[in-house]
Design goal:
With 216 residues, the protein is α/β, with parallel strands linked by helices. The protein contains 6 helices and 9 strands, in the order ααβαβαββαβββαββ. β1, α3 and β2 form a beta-alpha-beta unit.
């Protein structure tokens, strides 16, 4: 049922893309999530030379994270929502964008210095996570950096019928399973931690499991 679940996510973001950008991105811009990700991007920028190749999986409308990456890197954003891609192209004209499911998109092996996935792998059915990590490891150059936010708990299917006006789907592994899959894909986990911000997507406290890894 993974394909059907992903189709639901795609359709939902097509519907809510403008409202999501208006309401949710404002929360992330002003509260802890913005600071959280900006700190992580700053760390990556210190490790990877200016102009390095970055792939941003689940880029959405490009704001603010793809835009922040594009200040330093040659970025390709990936999102399977056509409306999100339209917005991203307007918001971050200096980046490139591909409309595709992140589990199906193709990049040459060893091409990327950085792969990021902020608040996006949680929408991929967990049955596909191990395969996705293997693809990410293949895309990265030796020593390349992978940074992502993952689910804080394990749940195969998590649904909300009215999430900003659309039905939405999430899927997560337990953090220890996610770490094992990332390691088995050929990446070395450097840091992992749970972090909570007081005002998340819904204006309520929100916790994610964060991972920074590098190509072994």
């Amino acid at each position: 049922m993974t394909a059907e679940n992903h189709d639901i996510v795609r359709a939902a973001y097509d519907v809510i893309a403008d409202e999501y950008l208006r309401r949710v991105a404002v929360v992330r811009e002003s509260e802890g999530v913005r600071v959280q990700v900006k700190s992580l991007i700053d760390e990556i920028r210190e490790r990877v030379p200016h102009g390095g190749r970055a792939i941003d999986l689940g880029c959405g409308a490009g704001m603010p994270f793809t835009a922040s990456l594009a200040e330093h890197f040659d970025v390709t954003g990936v999102d399977f929502s056509g409306r999100q891609i339209e917005l991203a192209q307007k918001n971050v004209p200096g980046a490139s964008f591909v409309q595709s499911d992140m589990t199906q998109v193709e990049f040459p092996d060893g091409e990327a210095d950085v792969v990021t996935a902020f608040f996006s792998i949680i929408h991929v059915h967990r049955d596909l996570h191990a395969m996705l990590y293997q693809s990410i490891a293949a895309w990265l150059k030796p020593g390349g950096v992978f940074a992502a936010s993952l689910g804080k708990r394990g749940k195969a299917e998590d649904w909300e019928d009215d999430w900003f006006g659309a039905r939405m789907f999430w899927s997560y592994h337990e953090p220890d399973v996610a770490l094992e899959q990332i390691s088995n894909a050929g990446m070395r986990v450097e840091r992992s931690w749970h972090e909570t911000v007081e005002a998340g997507i819904d204006g309520l406290p929100e916790t994610f499991f964060w991972v920074v890894a590098s190509k072994a």
